[in-house]
Design a protein that fits this description.
277 residues; alpha/beta; Rossmann fold; 6-stranded parallel sheet; 3-stranded parallel sheet; 11 strands; globular
């Protein structure tokens, strides 16, 4: 069994970026309200920006702002020649029409790849590619070392969750790249996960997926983020691996914390560099 070291992958990405020309333009994060998880993610992004000497600007707005004023703010940032990338920190407070707000984002500055006209891949897709590269390096996905995408061609992949940040873009990207894609949501009958060679999950429900629900030798890439008794937990119940005797081990999995999260942040900055070359 191989535990995917997201911190190590992220460090490699950041170290490579340090060798490239640094973008002179600003990276701006629009944060509406005071969601604690969002605030934590933004702190991680700000920390990496400081390490790379990127001009990071946080636009924290009250959730009392009107939707029109929020759209106007995002449009102004999109038109500002000094701004090279914009993050709309999700989720937005419930009163806002998320898709309508994303719709005014300038695709040329969309480093999260939320808009149709973006020039970069969605962050979750990039993380999947990174995780598979890491797994293949140790030949833990059941195929000879090589291109991670070509190694999916004879695999069944299950995507649990249909959100715009993880499930939806990954399921779209997988089309035509693997033998089959099965998409589930949190209320689905997950017994069908037994047929999947790779499970990618992003529901945000701690312990949703148990090891004994998986096919022997399957891999797990877990984007889930939940808080239980003050502890960060993922969708995959990795604690059961050692707690329950004779539990079948996955061939690899991403831990939470320390798995997909650091890689997401690192890939965000890689997208920022790409859009500002």
């Amino acid at each position: 069994m191989n535990i995917i070291d997201g911190k190590n992958i992220a460090r490699q990405i950041i170290d490579r970026l340090k060798t490239e020309p640094r973008p002179a333009k600003k990276l701006v994060a629009v944060f509406v309200g005071n969601n604690p998880a969002s605030a934590s993610f933004l702190k991680q992004k700000e920390k990496i920006a400081q390490e790379l000497a990127i001009n990071f600007q946080l636009e924290q707005l009250s959730e009392n702002i009107s939707e029109e004023d929020l759209k106007q703010k995002i449009k102004e940032l999109g038109d500002d020649p000094e701004v090279g990338g914009i993050i709309i920190q999700l989720p937005l407070p419930p009163k806002f029409d998320r898709d309508s707000i994303i719709g005014v984002l300038n695709p040329e500055k969309d480093i999260d790849a939320l808009t149709a006209g973006t020039k970069v891949l969605p962050l979750a897709v990039l993380v999947v590619i990174d995780a598979l590269k890491y797994a293949i390096q140790f030949q833990e996905i059941g195929s000879p070392a090589g291109d991670p995408i070509s190694n999916l061609k004879d695999k069944i992949v299950a995507v649990v969750g249909r959100g715009i940040l993880v499930g939806k873009p990954i399921a779209e990207w997988l089309k035509g790249k693997c033998l089959g894609v099965a998409v589930f949501h949190s209320g689905s009958d997950l017994t069908e996960l037994k047929s999947a060679d790779l499970v990618i999950t992003g529901v945000g429900k701690a312990g949703l997926i148990k090891p004994d629900m998986l096919k022997v030798g399957a891999g797990v890439i877990d984007f889930g983020f939940d808080m239980v008794d003050g502890k960060i937990r993922g969708d995959f119940d990795s604690d059961s691996l050692n707690a329950i005797p004779h539990t079948p081990y996955p061939s690899f999995y991403t831990p939470t914390p320390g798995g997909t999260g650091p890689v997401l942040v690192a890939e965000l900055f890689k997208n920022f560099y790409k859009l500002n070359k």
